[in-house]
């Protein structure tokens, strides 16, 4: 696959994909003037990325940085309703989304 397809699968820009190949983070091969990235090499790079895990430390940090209503001592309604959690995405989820 070329830069464009690899970038779409990985969820990064074509420019970022070129940087990752040029820096050696992702292995690629040259076929004439084309640069080809093997699916296994892209998967190896994706597997090397750290997982996003909600360890509870984020929940504690959210509480510490919450804004408080004066005199009430509880997080403001906007803060409570606006709080978001990050779901850990596994590599199979990335591949299913690309399919």
Automatic annotation (TrEMBL):
It comes from the Bacteria. InterPro entries: DNA-bd_dom_put_sf, HTH_17, SinI_DNA-bd. Residues 58-99 are annotated as: Disordered. GO terms for molecular function: DNA binding. Residues 58-72 have a biased composition (Acidic residues). It holds the Pfam family HTH_17. Residues 4-48 form the Helix-turn-helix domain. This is DNA binding domain, excisionase family protein.
């Amino acid at each position: 696959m070329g830069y464009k397809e690899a970038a779409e699968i990985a969820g990064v820009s074509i420019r970022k994909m070129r940087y990752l190949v040029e820096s050696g983070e992702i292995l690629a091969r040259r076929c004439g003037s084309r640069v080809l990235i093997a699916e296994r090499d892209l998967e190896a790079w994706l597997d090397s990325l750290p997982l996003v895990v909600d360890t509870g430390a984020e929940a504690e940090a959210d509480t510490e940085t919450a804004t408080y209503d004066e005199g009430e001592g509880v997080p403001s309604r906007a803060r409570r309703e606006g709080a978001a959690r990050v779901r850990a995405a596994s590599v199979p989820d990335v591949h299913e989304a690309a399919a």
